[in-house]
Amino acid sequence: MVERRQTIQRGLVLDAVKVLYNHPTAQEVYDFIHETHPSVGKATVYRNLNLLVDEGQLRRVFAIDGPDHYDCTTHTHQHIECRICKKIVDVKLPIDLESIVNVEKETGFSNIDENIIITGICPECLKNANKNKIS
Description:
The protein has 135 residues and is of the alpha+beta class. It has 2 domains: 1-73, Orthogonal Bundle (Arc Repressor Mutant, subunit A); 76-135, Ferric-uptake regulator, C-terminal dimerisarion domain (Dna Ligase, domain 1), CATH 3.30.1490.190. It has 5 helices and 5 strands. It has helices at residues 8-19, 26-36, 42-55, 97-107, 123-134; strands spanning 59-61, 69-71, 78-82, 88-91, 117-120. The protein has a 3-stranded mixed beta sheet with strand order 4-3-5, with no helix packed on it. The protein has a two-stranded antiparallel sheet with strand order 1-2.
C-alpha cells in the first residue's frame, strides 16, 4: 500500500463512495461529484478511485457483466449482484482461511483475492417482473 498526500479531489471521491454506499460505478461517483464540483473532471475521478483502491481505502468490486463498482467496506466480504438492474449488495459467506489454502493447493494459484460475486434477481426487480406479468 502506497500512502499519498491527501488532495481535495481524492477526499471528494472517497466521500462520494461513502455517501453513495450502494457500490457505485466510477460514472456514478463522477456524476455525484459533478453536481456540486463541476470543475472536477472524469479523468480525475477515475485516477483517484484507482489511487484509493491502491491505498486500501476503497475496494474494487469486479462486476460480472459491466463496469467495476467501488466499496468503502474494505474488510473481506462478498457480494451479490442483480442480473437485471446490476445493483450490488454486501453479503457475508462462510469462507475461512482454510478454504482459501485448500483452493491454493488444489489449483496452484497464489495471492488469491476473495472477490466472489453471486448473482440473482433483487426484490425490486422481482416485484417489477411479477407486476408486469399481471398487467
